[in-house]
Each structure stands twice: as structure tokens, then as C-alpha cells.
Design goal:
The protein contains 15 helices and 2 strands. The protein is mostly helical and about 350 residues long. The protein has one domain: ABC transporter involved in vitamin B12 uptake, BtuC, CATH 1.10.3470. It has a two-stranded antiparallel sheet. Helix 6 runs parallel beside helix 8 and helix 9 packs across helix 10.
């Protein structure tokens, strides 16, 4: 067990200071919280009313969908693998859920005719479909040893292509039962916070416990640090990685169902680019692209950083092109700052 602990999370030498007693992972998370506070202060100085409590709440809740996707993406990154299929999987899940819910029968509009299933059955089928995409990823990565970035880019296009076939390149938003829009448009009592945000908080909390307090969490770090050492110590590496791909698919499915319910439509173009946003917030939060390092809490901080930058760019009335450029610059500088801080700490 002692050997495993060292491989999972190497500890810096203790120097007698608080910083010296922190692991590198905790140090980076605190460092990125400092970056977040600095960016928020700059935004407050340049964007009118940016400091208002309502805006601060919006910063914490507006990226709930990317955060849910970021959980699965972060776990896989820690093992040294990518999942770029989540955006296409979100679109496919929402479309399948809407199609299953639409009333069956004859109609001159083929996009108004579905399978006529109860909403609960539609949700179950959509989630199975989402996990199926994760299982396909797992099969090619674990069994056939195809690089995960290649496989998941392929399944991203496959999933979105199937969504386009089902919607004929458009959307399914008619003949849906009233219950279809309830889940995504229900607010917590007495608040302006949607149920989807509560789902995000619960999933992040569960992921944090899984990461820090379970054998599965420790195995995730061990595999990322040294997959061969993990295998020799008895860890079923392939099975664990496969389960993480299926988990990532499930999280994409949950996101797709919530978004489809919020907009009361299954749209084939939904979640375009979300896979890159999920990757960005993971990297911003300190998850190593090489594996073996990172945390869900750090990913959450990365999401809030991205939310601050996006909201500030909108408040400054920047064009979408410049907003995209600003997000890229901030991401690049934040990751460089992480590396600089870690290098200085090790020196």
C-alpha cells in the first residue's frame, strides 16, 4: 500500500510552511483559485455591475452543462485518455429522448412523429444510447488499443451524424408531452436556480468523494501515473478505463436530457464545441494532459474561470470572434502560470 500511495500522488518535501505541506494537486487548485479571484477583480474594474450578487450567482451556475461533462473528461485525462465524443453524445441523447417521446401516428410532417413512449422509458433509452457510445469508445481503446483521441473524435462525428439523421438535419420540437419540458425548467423553491444546477452540484460532490475516498479513485491516479505498475499490482487497468468511458457517456447523456428538456426540443446541432470546453476547464483546473494528476475540484474552478472570462467579454460588448480569442489567450496564460508556479515550487 505504501508504494501505491507514492505512485498515486507524490508528496513534496515538508518545509515547515503551509505551502510545503500541501500536495502539488492542492497547491495548483489554490493557485487557480487565486487566478480566479484576480480575474474577477479585473472584470469588476472594467465591466459595469459585474460585482452584483446576481451576476456572481450566474457565474457559478451558467456552465452547469460543461461542468457535468468535465467530470468524465477529467477522470479520463487523469488516466491519460481523452473523450472528445461528449458533445456529439449530448446531441444524440437529446434527439433520441425527444424522438421516443413524440406521439406516434400519421402526420404530413415526419419530424412530428415519434415512438410514442412514456417519458421515463424515453429517458432510459436515451441514457442507454449515451452509455453505448462510451462502450464503443472503451472497446476500441481497451481492446483494439486505438489512441483515445482518434476513437472519440470518430464517435463524436458518428453520434452527431446519427442525430442529424433522426432530425433530418433540423430538430424535433413538436408533438412532445408537457412532461418533456418540466425537468429542465423547474427552479428550486424560492430561488432562481434550476434543478439542473442541483444535479450538477450533486454529481460534482459524488465525483469528489469517488476521487478522494474510494479505491476506484486511487486506482484512477495509479493508472495515470504508471499503467504498467498498476497492472503488476493487480489493478484491472482495461476494465477500469472502460468503466470511465461508460461513465463519461452516462454524464453526457444526463446533460443531453437536461438540455433537451430545457429547450423542449431535440436538436442535432446541440452542444457543438462542448467537448473542447470540457477539455479546457479540466486543463485550467490543473488536470495533467499526460495523466496522473488533477482533481474534480480543480476542474470546477477552471469552469468558473472560463465563465468569468466569457461573461466579462460579453459585458465589454466584444464580438464573438474576439470573445473566442480572449478565451484562448486566458487559457494559454493560465496553463503557463500553472507550470511556472509548479516549477518554482520544485526549485
Amino acid at each position: 500500500m505504501g508504494t501505491t500511495a507514492v505512485a498515486v500522488e507524490p508528496r513534496p518535501a515538508r518545509t515547515g510552511t503551509v505551502a510545503g505541506k500541501l500536495s502539488n494537486e492542492s497547491f495548483i487548485t489554490l493557485f487557480m483559485i487565486g487566478v480566479l479571484l484576480a480575474l474577477f477583480a479585473v472584470a469588476c474594474a472594467f465591466v459595469p455591475n459585474f460585482w452584483l450578487p446576481r451576476n456572481a450567482l450566474n457565474l457559478l451556475t451558467s456552465y452547469w452543462y460543461v461542468i457535468i461533462l468535465g467530470i468524465g473528461v477529467s477522470f479520463l485525462l487523469i488516466t491519460g485518455h481523452f473523450d472528445m465524443s461528449v458533445g456529439g453524445n449530448v446531441a444524440l441523447t437529446g434527439v433520441v429522448c425527444a424522438w421516443c417521446c413524440q406521439a406516434a401516428g400519421d402526420s404530413p410532417n415526419p419530424l412530428a412523429v415519434g415512438l410514442g413512449l412514456p417519458y421515463g422509458a424515453a429517458v432510459a433509452i436515451a441514457l442507454l444510447c449515451a452509455m453505448g457510445v462510451g462502450a464503443v469508445n472503451a472497446f476500441f481503446v481497451v481492446r483494439l488499443r486505438v489512441p483515445s483521441i482518434i476513437v472519440t473524435l470518430g464517435t463524436m462525428m458518428l453520434a452527431r451524424g446519427l442525430a442529424q439523421v433522426i432530425t433530418r438535419g433540423a430538430q424535433r420540437n413538436t408533438s412532445l408531452p408537457d412532461v418533456f419540458g418540466v425537468l429542465g425548467n423547474t427552479f428550486l423553491p424560492g430561488t432562481v436556480v434550476k434543478v439542473a444546477v442541483l444535479v450538477m452540484v450533486l454529481l460534482v460532490g459524488a465525483a469528489f468523494v469517488l476521487e478522494k475516498s474510494t479505491v476506484a479513485g486511487r486506482r484512477t491516479y495509479l493508472i495515470g501515473a504508471n499503467a504498467e505498475a498498476a497492472r503488476l499490482s493487480g489493478v484491472k487497468v482495461g476494465r477500469h478505463i472502460a468503466s470511465l468511458f461508460v461513465l463519461s457517456g452516462l454524464l453526457a447523456g444526463i446533460t443531453g436530457i437536461l438540455l433537451a428538456s430545457e429547450f423542449k426540443a431535440g436538436v442535432s446541432g446541440r452542444a457543438a464545441g462542448y467537448e473542447f470546453d470540457a477539455l479546457v476547464i479540466s486543463l485550467l483546473g490543473g488536470v495533467s494532459i499526460a495523466g496522473g494528476f488533477g482533481s474534480v475540484l480543480g476542474m470546477f474552478v477552471g469552469a468558473i474561470i472560463l465563465s468569468v472570462v466569457t461573461s466579462a467579454a460579453t459585458g465589454l460588448l466584444l464580438s464573438p470572434d474576439w470573445q473566442f480569442t480572449l478565451k484562448g489567450i486566458v487559457t494559454f496564460l493560465a496553463i503557463l502560470a500553472q507550470r511556472f508556479a509548479l516549477d518554482r515550487r520544485k526549485a
